[in-house]
């Protein structure tokens, strides 16, 4: 393999067409593990959620978690899949220290769900991603490699293993190859994973936290010269652990492969690792000496044969799916496609919906989340959902503005206070003294002072140049440190000067 | 008569009636073990105090008025492939030497719940792979009938312990004949229940789709009592059958075959069978006819392919089941000197910890499951398995049970087949089809072969969940033959 220089993205896309494929692993949020009764709580002390079965002690046997099977079928249904009437688990055999049995109970040629699709929206266009299969398996333990430069097993001094994660139910969702995304390949990959994440959330089957590894993505990319019908050799970039990384990994892999192909090199079919810091991938294990997993039907478990009537019930009971919900909310809120897309991209829809549910008008809710709060999130490098403020608090702020207790400027200060941990909006108003000046006497005194200090402007207004009142209102706002109600101040100024609009 | 010569049913009744304590019964057997173990070597682990503690606890439960089963206080020898909280468990392998399980197998737990007293853990072929117990990493067990011969296998420690009056009962596991063949060559009763009828939870797996826990005893009724004590649905084993345990004890008490239809498997006789075995077998068939059974010959041609199919399926499953023995979490660890990788330590440990027969089967199974070979080997063997099941089903439309010799020969000399795996594998020729089909099958003594005066077993096979038929026919044969012999066959065994 030539080291290859990266080819700039636009040039790469002028010469090549990408074909994508995505394998996504979702850890189900069941209370117990896939094949034993151990808890699945994230972050428990190492090796405290283990038993003979998930440690693979001699003699221990698996028993399939019925809730996990149900969740997988619901995922399959939400992805428009057919559900197998009869299927089996299979053993995938390979040795690795974090896999206690040295085989993974998975599914092979008989997945629980197959042949589905999911539609994603990119710049107003609908792209249909076909789903090859959805199957159920168990997670491995978690290895930590200590010493060495890379944190990988190669070069490490020693490794430690936490088996708490071993046996957590894992759903693998595999797309069919996705051709025809052209320049949008990175965005399509990201939109697909985003959509999956929302579907999982709406089904309530997983907390889908990419940073905690409960949603993990492997990205397959290949390139073919423009005009060619024959797909190129693909690489598989493993464990891409944020939405942004999905997009970057596709882009980087396109640039890398294009560079190699342009120099007459050939792509090696291999696993690659994505590096968050550089946004590039490096070579992992070559798949050309492919592992032989020696799959065979798991003899410790009985086949799964979901009753079609039960599957029909599950289908009927599916919640409103995210794409449908977005269309409904867009109509209810009266937003353009572009505005809705912007909210979707910013992960703001749920927050806005919750804010509306807490009593705020949709326009106000959207204005705060997509404006001030989006800016704050961007500045601090966090997501909207992770800002230390709740939809109910935003709703309260909009209520205070609507009732005239706050103006927008004061409202922003209230948000400052809430984000700084000073308490609820009402507590911040109280502590910072941010109430609008409603006392007519106090306001009147401020106005008198401002009129006295700005006699020229006052004369202009008297003379009928009402536009000059703006400067006087500005003066009142300055003198009141922003707490005056600007509209009322204007009204009083005009009254005092004996003019009307 | 001394306590060790009594049947389990008798001992249970005596203990329940307060005639003798569980401690006294345990002591009698522990004393017998101390006397004959140097010759027989049936046990891998014996701990007098642990055993007596169990017996004391049972006596206390009985004194407190607790209602226990008919075997409360009766000792049992436990195959060292069932995990036990209070005793080491090795599966006959160096790779598990010294391992103390943190949990009890379901069979172990049910023995305890029924008040049985575990005398110790019995020897076996490593991971139950073998037909002579010579594949144990801890040395061979000797047949009480002739100490130079094997006690069968893989459950040879369990068969020898019962035949040597060290225990009235023992547990075994039967994957291809590992209960029936040792029972046959030691002159006792051994039963392979319907697959799924007894739990595999805590039974160290050899071949998951075949492994079946079952009982050994010196008579049919005792075997039924033990099977009843540890059988039945277990939610911890997905392949366990959620059905009532067949009425095996009732059947064992009802030795009546009048009007029953008995099929003689045509393929299991002739060349390769010891003449003395065939002579006793043919007499047993005539006996059944004389007791009023209708005997017909049944041809099951696919049974001839059972052995090769078994030696693809069982090794395939074992190659995967034994992957967990990797030095990471328990058992032997070799080469962990700080310079070697985990992969190297795994490889060194497995090379040092597994014996030659285990390695042979792991290699065989790994090959049979490999990409490009799967269809020709594992896949084809599964098809054969289906055909065998269908032949059984077809046969059971015509007859209630099938019979055959349990094993083609009597006990062979220690060392004779140790270097000839094919000869060893042939010992399970007649027993394997029932494992592949998941059927019930029992071996009961039917006499001594003329040429060597060693025990011969009659195998009685019955449909899935018709275990009771095995016991009913077995009890009828036992009653008639003991009438002729004037007592159990085992009474003819030489004194140790």
From TrEMBL, chain A:
Alphabetical UniProt keywords: ATP-binding, Ligase, Nucleotide-binding, Protein biosynthesis, Transferase
UniProt GO BP: glutaminyl-tRNAGln biosynthesis via transamidation; translation
Gene3D superfamilies noted in UniProt: 1.10.10.410
Residues forming coiled coils: none
InterPro entries membership: Asn/Gln-tRNA_amidoTrfase_suB/E, Asn/Gln-tRNA_Trfase_suB/E_cat, Asn/Gln_amidotransferase, Asn/Gln_tRNA_amidoTrase-B-like, GatB, GatB_Yqey_C_2, Gln-tRNA_amidoTrfase_suB_CS, Gln_synth/guanido_kin_cat_dom
PROSITE patterns: GATB
GO molecular function: asparaginyl-tRNA synthase (glutamine-hydrolyzing) activity; ATP binding; glutaminyl-tRNA synthase (glutamine-hydrolyzing) activity; transferase activity
All residue ranges annotated as the Asn/Gln amidotransferase domain in the record: 350-497
Enzyme Commission designation: 6.3.5.-
Entries under Pfam families matching the protein: GatB_N (PF02934), GatB_Yqey (PF02637)
Catalytic activity: L-glutamyl-tRNA(Gln) + L-glutamine + ATP + H2O = L-glutaminyl-tRNA(Gln) + L-glutamate + ADP + phosphate + H(+); L-aspartyl-tRNA(Asn) + L-glutamine + ATP + H2O = L-asparaginyl-tRNA(Asn) + L-glutamate + ADP + phosphate + 2 H(+)
Function statement: Allows the formation of correctly charged Asn-tRNA(Asn) or Gln-tRNA(Gln) through the transamidation of misacylated Asp-tRNA(Asn) or Glu-tRNA(Gln) in organisms which lack either or both of asparaginyl-tRNA or glutaminyl-tRNA synthetases. The reaction takes place in the presence of glutamine and ATP through an activated phospho-Asp-tRNA(Asn) or phospho-Glu-tRNA(Gln).
Assembly mode: Heterotrimer of A, B and C subunits.
HAMAP family according to UniProt: GatB
Family assignment from sequence similarity: Belongs to the GatB/GatE family. GatB subfamily.
Name the UniProt record assigns to this protein: Aspartyl/glutamyl-tRNA(Asn/Gln) amidotransferase subunit B
Organism: Nonomuraea jiangxiensis
Lineage of origin: Bacteria, Bacillati, Actinomycetota, Actinomycetes, Streptosporangiales
TrEMBL record, chain B:
Domain Amidase: 24-470
The entry's keywords: ATP-binding, Ligase, Nucleotide-binding, Protein biosynthesis, Transferase
Gene3D superfamilies on file: Amidase signature (AS) domain (3.90.1300.10)
Catalytic residues (positions): 79, 154, 178
Enzyme class label: ligase
Signal peptide coordinates: none
Pfam families according to UniProt: Amidase (PF01425)
GO biological process: translation
Annotated EC: 6.3.5.7
GO CC terms: glutamyl-tRNA(Gln) amidotransferase complex
Reactions accelerated catalytically: L-glutamyl-tRNA(Gln) + L-glutamine + ATP + H2O = L-glutaminyl-tRNA(Gln) + L-glutamate + ADP + phosphate + H(+)
InterPro entries: Amidase, Amidase_CS, Amidase_dom, AS_sf, GatA
GO molecular function: ATP binding; glutaminyl-tRNA synthase (glutamine-hydrolyzing) activity; transferase activity
Keyword Zinc included in the entry's annotation: no
Function: Allows the formation of correctly charged Gln-tRNA(Gln) through the transamidation of misacylated Glu-tRNA(Gln) in organisms which lack glutaminyl-tRNA synthetase. The reaction takes place in the presence of glutamine and ATP through an activated gamma-phospho-Glu-tRNA(Gln).
Subunit structure: Heterotrimer of A, B and C subunits.
Family the UniProt entry places it in: Belongs to the amidase family. GatA subfamily.
Protein name: Glutamyl-tRNA(Gln) amidotransferase subunit A
Classification lineage: Bacteria, Bacillati, Actinomycetota, Actinomycetes, Streptosporangiales
């Amino acid at each position: 393999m030539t080291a290859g220089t990266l080819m700039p993205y636009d040039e790469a896309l002028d010469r090549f067409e990408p074909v994508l494929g995505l394998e996504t692993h979702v850890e189900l949020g069941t209370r117990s593990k896939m094949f034993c009764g151990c808890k699945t709580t994230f972050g428990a002390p190492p090796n405290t959620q283990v038993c003979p079965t998930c440690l693979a002690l001699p003699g221990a046997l698996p028993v399939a978690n019925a809730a996990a099977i149900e969740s997988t079928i619901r995922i399959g249904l939400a992805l428009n899949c057919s559900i197998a009437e009869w299927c089996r688990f299979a053993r995938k055999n390979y040795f690795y220290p974090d896999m206690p049995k040295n085989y993974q109970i998975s599914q092979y040629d008989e997945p629980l769900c197959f042949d589905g699709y999911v539609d994603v929206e990119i710049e107003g266009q609908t792209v249909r991603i076909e789903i090859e299969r959805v199957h159920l398996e168990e997670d491995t333990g978690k290895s930590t490699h200590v010493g060495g430069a890379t944190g990988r097993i190669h070069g490490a001094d020693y490794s430690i293993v936490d088996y708490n994660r071993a046996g957590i139910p894992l759903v693998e969702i595999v797309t069919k190859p996705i051709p025809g995304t052209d320049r949008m390949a990175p965005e399509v990959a990201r939109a697909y994973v985003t959509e999956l994440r929302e579907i999982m959330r709406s089904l309530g089957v997983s907390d889908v936290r990419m940073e905690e590894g409960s949603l993990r993505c492997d990205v397959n990319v290949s390139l073919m010269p423009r005009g060619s019908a024959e797909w190129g050799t693909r690489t598989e970039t493993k464990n891409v652990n944020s939405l942004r990384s999905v997009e970057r990994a596709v882009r980087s892999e396109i640039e890398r492969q294009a560079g190699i192909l342009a120099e007459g090199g050939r792509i090696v079919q291999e696993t690659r690792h994505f590096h968050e810091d550089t946004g590039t991938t490096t070579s992992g294990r070559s798949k050309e000496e492919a592992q032989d997993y020696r799959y065979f039907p798991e003899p410790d478990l009985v086949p799964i044969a979901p009753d079609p009537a039960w599957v029909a019930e599950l289908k009927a009971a599916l919640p409103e799916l995210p794409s449908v919900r977005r269309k409904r909310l867009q109509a209810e809120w009266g937003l353009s496609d572009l505005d809705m897309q912007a909210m979707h991209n910013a992960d703001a829809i749920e927050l806005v919906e919750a804010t509306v549910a807490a009593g705020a008008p949709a326009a106000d809710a959207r204005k705060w989340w997509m404006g001030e709060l989006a800016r704050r999130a961007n500045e601090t490098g966090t997501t909207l959902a992770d800002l230390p403020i709740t939809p109910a608090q935003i709703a309260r702020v909009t209520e205070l503005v609507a009732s005239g207790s706050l103006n927008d400027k004061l409202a922003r200060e209230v948000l400052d206070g809430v984000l700084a941990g000073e308490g609820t909006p009402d507590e911040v108003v109280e502590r910072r003294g941010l109430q609008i000046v409603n006392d007519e006497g106090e306001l009147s005194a401020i106005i008198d002072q401002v009129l006295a200090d700005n006699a020229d402007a006052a004369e202009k207004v008297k003379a009928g140049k009402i536009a000059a009142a703006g400067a006087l209102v500005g003066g009142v706002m300055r003198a009141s440190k922003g707490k005056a109600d600007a509209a009322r101040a204007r009204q009083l100024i005009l009254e005092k000067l004996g003019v009307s609009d | 008569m001394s306590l060790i010569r009594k049947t389990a049913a008798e001992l249970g009744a005596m203990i329940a009636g307060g005639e003798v304590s569980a401690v006294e019964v345990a002591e009698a057997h522990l004393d017998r073990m101390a006397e004959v173990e140097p010759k027989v070597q049936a046990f891998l682990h014996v701990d007098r105090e642990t055993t007596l503690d169990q017996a004391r606890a049972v006596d206390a439960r009985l004194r407190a008025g607790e209602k226990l089963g008919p075997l409360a206080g009766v000792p049992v020898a436990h195959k060292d492939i069932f995990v036990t909280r209070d005793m080491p468990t090795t599966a006959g392998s160096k790779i598990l030497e010294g391992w103390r399980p943190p949990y009890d197998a379901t069979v172990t737990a049910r023995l305890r719940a029924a008040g049985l007293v575990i005398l110790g853990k019995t020897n076996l072929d490593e991971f139950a792979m073998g037909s002579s117990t010579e594949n144990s990493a801890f040395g061979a067990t000797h047949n009480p009938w002739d100490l130079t011969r094997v006690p069968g296998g893989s459950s040879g420690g369990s068969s020898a312990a019962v035949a040597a009056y060290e225990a009235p009962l023992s547990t075994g596991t039967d994957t291809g004949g590992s209960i029936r063949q040792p029972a046959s060559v030691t002159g006792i009763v051994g039963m392979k229940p319907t697959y799924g009828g007894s739990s595999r939870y805590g039974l160290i797996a050899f071949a998951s789709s075949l492994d079946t826990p079952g009982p050994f005893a010196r008579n049919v009724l005792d075997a039924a009592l033990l099977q009843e004590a540890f059988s039945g649905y277990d939610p911890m084993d997905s392949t366990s059958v959620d059905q009532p345990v067949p009425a095996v004890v009732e059947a064992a008490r009802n030795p009546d075959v009048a009007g029953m239809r008995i099929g003689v498997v045509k393929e299991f006789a002739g060349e390769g069978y010891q003449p003395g075995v065939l002579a006793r077998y043919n007499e047993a068939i005539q006996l059944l006819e004389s007791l009023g059974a209708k005997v017909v010959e049944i041809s099951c041609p696919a049974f001839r392919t059972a052995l090769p199919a078994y030696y693809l399926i069982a090794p395939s499953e074992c190659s995967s089941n034994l992957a967990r023995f990797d030095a990471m979490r328990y058992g032997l660890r070799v080469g962990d000197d700080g310079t070697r990788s985990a992969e190297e330590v795994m490889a060194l440990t497995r090379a040092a910890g597994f014996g030659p027969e285990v390695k042979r089967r792991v290699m065989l199974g790994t090959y049979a499951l490999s990409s490009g070979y799967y269809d020709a080997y594992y896949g084809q063997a599964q098809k054969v398995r289906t055909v065998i099941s269908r032949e059984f089903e077809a046969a059971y439309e015509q007859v209630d049970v099938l019979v055959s010799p349990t094993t083609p020969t009597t006990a062979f000399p220690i060392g004779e087949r140790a270097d000839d795996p094919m000869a060893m594998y042939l010992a399970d020729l007649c027993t394997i089809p029932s494992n592949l089909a998941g059927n019930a099958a029992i071996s009961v003594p039917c006499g001594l072969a003329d040429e060597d005066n060693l025990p011969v077993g009659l195998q009685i096979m019955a449909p899935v969940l018709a275990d009771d038929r095995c016991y009913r026919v077995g009890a009828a044969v036992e009653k008639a033959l003991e009438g002729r012999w004037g007592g159990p066959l085992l009474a003819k065994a030489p004194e140790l």
